[in-house]
Write a structure and sequence with these properties.
This protein is α/β, with parallel strands linked by helices. It folds into three domains: 4-148 and 275-343, FAD/NAD(P)-binding domain (3-Layer(bba) Sandwich); 161-272, FAD/NAD(P)-binding domain; 347-460, Enolase-like, domain 1, CATH 3.30.390.30. It is built from 14 helices and 22 strands. The strands form five sheets. Strands 1, 2, 3, 4, 5, 6 and 17 form a seven-stranded mixed sheet that branches. Strands 8-15-9-10-11 form a five-stranded parallel sheet. A five-stranded antiparallel sheet has the order 18-19-22-21-20, sandwiched between helices. β4 (114-119) and β5 (122-126) form a beta hairpin. The relative contact order is 0.12. The mean pLDDT is 97. The structure holds flavin-adenine dinucleotide and 1,4-dihydronicotinamide adenine dinucleotide. The site of 1,4-dihydronicotinamide adenine dinucleotide has 26 residues, from α6, β12 and β18.
């Protein structure tokens, strides 16, 4: 006899959604979480605090630089960093408590502590006070997420050399922040501190920022960020970071070889990717297979090689995104309940919450070319959109890629204000196998930024109306 039908290890977006759906399916559920709060990386040290600081810093930046252009005079502008951090912390607290409420509502037992496998149905839980208990389940879902990665020669101390976690709670605005890695975290958190007054230098190993993002979008993004004051050192690698009396010394050299250089900064953000987190979980005790990089191996229904043990979210392959984890959480709970669980990995949106935002779904031009797919591209600049003009958000464009023969939408790439909300229409279109013509024939309210989607769809067949 097991205590529970389902035991979820990890209370992040993957784990807590899996727990809720399993409970909705009539199963008896427990969720084990060690960090002392539900919501995982996303709510505690990821999506939510970063978006709170992005929001606050954007308001600060706009008040200082844009309000005057529309006739709103602001007196002397002053940053109250402790208040900004308190707003961020309150936002996080409210949301983690909200998940606790959802657990109560769905009669899910929240087990506080770190779990590790004793056998395939038994999890030993070490509580904060050092006490241990065991929880048994017919099915176990591993949803233990991920943690920041680093590089040789760089030791994260979360004081001066910080991961995203430290960068979300700096006690002061850096004079010079060196960001290692020009990916999502580096550019989002780099934007926060740049807006608040830091000089920001991004050191990126590859010869471009945001690998994986459509080339044309990435180029435009790079140009805009430089205009905002970012210094970009692409094709450059960091060999070591040393603490000196006056600050940090960062040794860099061209990735392809060449003369080394030393940068000086007061803070370094290490944002070179994240790795699966399975420390202390005891996977070897039950024989659950993981890759060399520590990702738990599953089949396409999130089953590991051990009967009754499943895994979802950042700890398995695929994009490390909260909404991907959530989709998998709901789907695996349906699979366990004997229902159909499905995730469409071809329609998972990606959003970078900088200013402007960058959002995409589906294939990039480079991917389509590589796969030999014939496609047509339709592009529309925000410069020609009335609402963008009104809001002074004229940078960027929408690009729709459609199959040359069938007109089916294969990918949508947006750089511009509110791109993260605009992409939802494209995701829905792709879920319904829509054609560019379908989007072009859909009435969009005027004046809205979303009209740019319609115009880009019209552009696929060379029929834009406003450009
Ligand atoms: P996690 O959220 O990592 O949750 C796993 C949980 O398991 C953790 O709380 C951990 O404490 C717990 N745990 C681990 N091991 C054990 C154990 N043995 N026992 C008990 N508990 C355990 N994604 C987006 O989609 N949008 C964004 O805007 C976004 N912004 C981000 C910003 C930052 C700075 C970072 C770092 C990440 C961001 N992400 C974003 C990524 C997102 O946070 C992750 O993809 C998401 O949290 C993964 O969810 P998960 O449930 O798989 O894992
Ligand atoms: P990332 O994979 O987005 O970017 C890492 C960057 O570091 C890459 O450009 C890579 O080429 C570079 N890099 C790797 N090694 C390097 C080295 N030695 N020197 C210089 N550059 C190096 O990873 P990041 O930014 O750490 O974020 C981790 C994950 O968190 C993301 O992949 C994403 O899944 C998630 N995330 C999502 C967000 C969102 O959806 N808005 C926001 C923040 C994080």
């Amino acid at each position: 006899m097991s205590d529970y039908d389902v035991v979820v290890i990890g209370g992040g977006p993957g784990g807590y959604i899996a727990a809720i759906r399993a409970a909705q399916n009539g199963l008896k559920v427990a969720c084990i979480e060690g960090r002392g709060a539900l919501g995982g990386t996303c709510t505690n040290v990821g999506c939510i605090p970063s978006k709170a600081l992005l929001h606050a810093s954007e308001v600060f930046e706009e008040a200082g630089h844009s309000y005057g252009k529309i006739g709103v005079k602001v007196g002397s502008l002053e940053l109250d960093l402790p208040a900004m951090m308190a707003y961020k912390d309150d936002t996080v607290k409210g949301l983690t408590r909200g998940i606790e409420f959802l657990f109560k509502k769905n009669k899910i037992d929240y087990v506080k502590g770190w779990g590790s496998f004793k056998d395939k149905n038994t999890i030993e839980v070490k509580g904060e006070d050092g006490s241990t208990s065991t929880v048994t389940g017919k099915s176990i879902i591993i949803a233990t997420g991920s943690e920041p990665a680093s590089i040789p020669g760089v030791t994260i101390d979360e004081k001066r050399i910080v991961s995203s976690t430290g960068a979300l709670a700096l006690p002061e605005v850096p004079k010079h922040l060196v960001v290692i890695g020009g990916g999502v975290i580096g550019l989002e958190l780099g934007s926060v501190w740049a807006r608040l007054g830091a000089k920001v230098t991004v050191v990126e190993f590859l010869d471009r920022i945001v690998p994986g993002v459509d080339d044309e979008v990435a180029k435009e993004f790079d140009k805009i960020l430089r205009k905002q004051g970012f210094t970009m050192k692409t094709g450059t690698k960091v060999t070591k970071v040393e603490s000196a009396k006056a600050g940090l010394k960062i040794s860099v050299e061209p990735a392809k070889g060449g003369d080394a250089e030393v940068l000086e900064a007061d803070y370094v953000l290490v944002s070179v990717g994240r790795k699966a987190y399975t420390e202390g979980l005891g996977l070897d005790k039950v024989g659950v297979k993981a890759t060399d990089r520590g990702l738990v191996v599953t089949d396409d229904h999130w089953r590991t090689n051990v009967d009754g043990i499943y895994a979802i979210g950042d700890v398995i392959a695929g994009p490390m995104l909260a909404h991907k984890s959530e989709e998998e959480g709901a789907a695996v709970a349906d699979v366990i309940a004997g229902k159909v669980g499905h995730v469409n990995y071809d329609a998972i949106p990606n959003v970078i919450y900088t200013s402007p935002e960058v959002a995409s779904v589906g294939k990039t031009e480079e991917e389509l070319k590589k796969a030999g797919v014939e496609y047509k591209a339709g592009k529309f600049p925000f410069m020609a959109n009335a609402k963008a003009k009104v809001g002074l958000h004229t940078e960027g464009f929408v690009k729709i890629l459609a199959d040359a023969k069938t007109d089916r939408v294969l990918g949508v790439h947006i750089i511009g204000a509110d791109a993260g909300n605009l992409i939802a229409e494209a995701v829905l279109a792709m879920e319904f196998d829509a054609s560019a013509e379908d989007i072009a024939m859909t009435c969009h309210a005027h004046p809205t930024l979303s009209e740019s989607m319609k115009e880009a769809a019209l552009a696929v067949s060379g029929r834009t109306l406003n450009f």
